[in-house]
Description:
Layout: E1 30-34, H1 38-44, H2 49-70, E2 74-81, H3 89-112, E3 116-120, H4 128-141, E4 148-155, H5 157-173, H6 184-189, E5 201-204, E6 223-226, H7 236-247
Parallel strand pairs: 1-2, 1-5, 2-4, 3-4, 5-6
Helix pairs in contact: 1-2, 2-3, 3-4
This protein binds 3-methylbut-3-enyl trihydrogen diphosphate (2 copies) and magnesium ion (MG).
One 3-methylbut-3-enyl trihydrogen diphosphate binds next to helix 1.
Amino acid sequence: MTTFLKKKRKRSLNSSESFSDIDTANLPYHVAIIMDGNGRWAKKRILNRIEGHKKGVEVVRLIVRTCREIGISILTLYAFSTENWQRPKTEVAALMSLLKNFLESEQKDMLDNNIRLNAIGQIERLPEDVQQALHKTMSLTKKNGGLMLNLALSYGGRDEIVRMVQEIAARTKEGKIDPDLITPELVSDFLYTKGMPDPDLLIRTSGEMRISNFLLWQIAYTEIFVTETLWPDFGRQEFLQILKHYQHRERRFGKV
Ligand code: IPE
Ligand code: IPE
Ligand code: MG
């Protein structure tokens, strides 16, 4: 059984900052973001796609900071999909190097600000040096109880579901799981997101109306917002605006 107490985080706002029209008692607990549009942002400026990814990392910093300040508990960022391995080698290498730099440069900020880093996906497929930086930062920050920054890396929803089925099937074969006792809660416990409540809010930038293999099981009742803004142009104000819209949505969960 998944037992994850939704403990409200204390906000750490400066009095100069204002989230005045947002009800901080009714924030999404878990926000997930499909950060899309880096390549198009660069193309519009006749720049290399990599420049778009670089600008994208700056926006990641900004949104992490905003989530921490306002009191979001989990921020899951789709940073690299299982399909993204099929991009040109140079782009994949650049993304991996940006990821490693990000982990190294943000370590201090995470420690100073009580942020816990977590990763979901096929971590073992990442380059050795990236895996090392990742494990080091995760282990250094594992006791932090503030914002959880959850990076989806070499992540695919179908891959996650296949792994879950393989593990449950293996345990069933060994007689450790009774097939009649397989419940949605048990399934959730065999996913990368074990222990985390499902996202309340999913944001996709750059206007595409698709899920692109992200958190397929977990978004059953997630509120979805798609913005036309390309990820490198996304920012604090628009993020807060989306939080405000979220607060006006009526979540019915199939009831009346
Ligand atoms: C998102 O931006 C970043 C990753 C998928 C790693 P894209 O690189 O997909 O940018 P577009 O969609 O080509 O504009
Ligand atoms: C989704 O964006 C993956 C990430 C943001 C990491 P993509 O650009 O890879 O997705 P598609 O190709 O538009 O579906
Ligand atoms: Mg894209």
